[in-house]
Specification:
47% helix, 28 helices, 21% strand, eight-stranded mixed β-barrel, seven-stranded mixed sheet, 32 strands, alpha/beta
Length: 757
Amino acid sequence: MRFLFAFSAFLTGIAAAALFAVSGLHVTLEQQWREAIHEWSPREASGQVHVVEIDAASLAAVNRWPWPRQHYANVVKRLDEAGVRSIAFDIDFSSPSAAGDDAAFAAALERAKTPVYLPTFSQAASANDRRALEALPIEPLRRSVSLASVMMRPDADGFVRSLPMGAVTGDIPRPSLAAASSGANGAVDEIFALDLSVDPATIPRHSFVKIERGRFDPDELRGKDVIIGATAIELFDRYPVPLHGVIPGAVVQALGVETLLAGRFVEIGWILPLAFAALISVWILGAQTSALAAARGGTITVSLMVAGFCLQAVSRIAADIVPALVCVIAVTGMIIARHLHHDFQHRRLYDPGTDLQNRRAFVQRPGIDEERLTIAMALDNYEALRAVLGEDGSDTLIRRMADRVTEHDASVCIFRVEERVLAWTVSALGYDPDQELAKLAKLLRAPMYIDNRAVDTDLTFGVASKDALNEAIHAARVAATQKRTVSFHADTEQENMERRVSLLGELEGAIEREELQVWFQPQLDLGSNEIASVEALVRWQHPTRGFLAPGHFIPLAEKSNRIDSLTIYVLRKSIDALMAWCDEGIVLRAAVNISARLLSSRSFIREIEQLVSTSGIPRDRLVFEITESATLDDPEESTAALHRLRALGIAISIDDYGTGQSSLSYLKTMPLSELKIDRSFVQHAHKEVSDAMLVRSTIQLAHELGLTVVAEGVEHAECLEFLRSAGCDIAQGYLIGKPMTFDDIRTITAEYSRKVA
C-alpha cells in the first residue's frame, strides 16, 4: 500500500507540473524568477557599445524638431573620423526633409568608411486600421547603408524583455539593430532574451551636440559600436524594462547589443528540468516522517533554484524550472500529507506512553469470522508502582508485560485499553482460560527490572465473549475483589463450558481415526552443530473448525483425564518416525511431552513400558519432558514412576525451567537427564542482563548436576552465539527450524550435516 501511494504521488507530481507548464501558468513566475536572478547577479556594461543621445541639451542647442539632417551628416563624419566600428541610428528617416539637408546626409553616408545602419520598422495604419505599414528610410539615404529593424515587442504586461533577431520589411529579411551592431546571426522573427543583469547606467553615453561640435575624446569611441537615438523625455521614445524602469529606446537597443556580444541565453525549456526533478523526487518518496519529507523536498527545491541561478548567471543557460518546482512541491506535499494523516491516525489509535494500540483501536479492529474470547488483564497495584517508578517507568513496565504476553502467545495483538488494563482476543475453540492464564500469570510474575528495581506485579484476568471488552474489564475487577486470578463474565463461562464439552467429544474420535498429526521441531547440538534431536508436537486439522493449536485441546484433555490416550498416540507416532529415520541412517532422539498428572497413573506407566519394550526402539532415543511448573498429584508416586521410566533407558527432561518454583533439592530428588530453560528467559538473554544471568547460572547449576541443558525460544543469531559462549548444550527455536513434518526433518538434518562436512 505504501509503495502504491508513493508511486501515485510521483505520477501526480509529474502530471501537475506538466499541466501547469502546458497551460502556460508558469510563464509569469518564470519571468519573475529570471528577473530575480538578473537582479542578484548585476554586472556592468562591456563598454563596447556607446550611445550618442539626443538629449535635452542637444534639443536646446538646435532649438527645433525635427532637426535639419545636416546635423546627422556632421555626426556621421565625426564618428567616422574617430574610427568607430559601426554606427546605428534609432531615428525615423522614412519621410523627406529639406532637399539640401537630405542630400548632405546622403553624401555623408556615402563617404563614411564605417558601416552605417539606418532603421526600418512597421506600425499600424491608424487606431481603427490595424494594417501594418512598413517604414523605410527615404531612397537617397538607402544607397550606401544597410537597413536594420528597430522593432520592439513588449510582453502582454507592457514590459520589454526580449528583442527579435530580425524582421521582414519591404519583403526583405533584415537583421535587427542589435544583431547588426553585434554581428550575431539569427533567423527572422527569432527572439532573444535581454540580459537584464547589465546595468543600463553603465552604458557609456555622449551628448549628440558634443559629438557634432567635436568636443569629445576620439580614443573613447575608436573601435566601438555606436547607437544614435533620442533620450530626451520630450521625444517619447521610452519603454518599460524590468528592474530598470522606463528607459530610452536607444538604451534598450544597446542592452540588446550587450546581450548578443556576451552570447545569447540558451533556452532549454521545462521538459528537461522536470525530468531531472522527477528523478530526484524519488528521494522524497522514501522519507519515513513528514519532517524528513519536508527537509528533502526543501533541499531539492533549493538545489533546483541554485542550479537555475548558476546556469543562467554563469553559463547563460535559461531553464524553465517552475514546472520542476511544482513537481517537487506536489510530491513533497502528498508525502507530508500522508505522514500527517498517518501520525494523526497513530495518535488516535495508539497509546502515547507505550505505543500499544488503544481502546479505540480495539473497537475498530477488523472482524474475524470465528468464535473468540476477550481477555482483560488488570495490573491491580498500578498506582503504587507508578508512584515509585514514575510515568515513564510505569509505561515501560506495561510495555514489558505486553512483550511477555506475546512471548507466551505470538498470535495475539495487545491493546492498552486503560492505564492499568491490557486486552486481547483469542480463539475460543479449545482454549482453556483457567490453565492458559494461570501459566501466563506465572510468566508475568517472573522478576522484571525497571530502572534497576525489581518489580512485583499483582495481576487479575477477566474473560468475556467476543468484543465484550467492558464485560472482560469488569470480570477482571471482580477477580481482584474475590482474590482470584481469573474471573469469567457469566455468559462467557457458560459458553466456554459448552465449547469444551463439544471439542472433547470430537477429540476422542480424532484419536481413534488418527486424524491428529505429529510434527517435529529440530534441536541443534551446539557442540557438533548438527541436528541431534527433535521435539514431538501434536497438531489437529479439524474438518470443520480448521487448524487447532495444541493449546486449544491439550489443556481440555488434561482436565478431563483424557490426556493418556493422546499421549500414547503421540508416543506411538514418534517411535514410528524414529524407526523410519533409523532405517535411513538418520540417528535422532525424540522428546515427547508427558503430563505430570499421568505420572501417578500406574496403568499409563505400564502401557508405556509395554509400548517401548515391544517397539524395538533403542531406549536412549526417547526423552520424556515433564513440565516443571505442573503440579504433581502424588509426588512420591510420580517420582517412583520417573525412576521406572529412567530404568528403561528413557531420558527424563524437566521442561519450562524457570517458570515454576523449583529448588535444588527438588531437582536432586528426580532422576533427570536434561533441563530445558523456558523460552521467556532465553529469547532476550543476549540483550537483557537479568535474563542472561539466569540462563548462565542455570547452565552452570545443571552441569554441576550432570544434566544436559536445552534452551528453547532461540530466534536470533545473536542469541545462539550467546548460548554457545554460555556453554549451553542444545538449542531449539525458530532460528533452527519451526515444527515440521517427517520429510522436512530428513531435509534439515542433511543440510546441517553438509554444513559440518
